[in-house]
Design a protein that fits this description.
Elements: H1 8-13, E1 14-16, E2 22-25, H2 38-43, E3 47-49, H3 55-62
Antiparallel strand pairs: 1-2, 2-3
GO biological process, one term: translation
Organism: Micromonospora radicis
Family: Belongs to the bacterial ribosomal protein bL35 family.
Amino acid sequence: MPKMKSHTGTGKRVRVTGKGKLLKEQANKRHLLEKKSSTRTRRLTGVVEVAKADVKRIKKLLGR
C-alpha cells in the first residue's frame, strides 16, 4: 500500500497549535480593499480558528 500524503496546499494555509486546534487567516483581505470599509478590513486581520464543521475534513487533508 502506498503511503498517505498530506495535502501541501492545506499545510501552507492552516497551522496546528500545540493543543491540536487549527488556525487560519481570514478571507477577503487580499485585493479590492478600496471599496471595503476600514472596520471590515480591521476585523479581518489576524488568525481565527477553523469552523467546527470543517475540522474533520482539514485534519484528514493534513494527514492527522
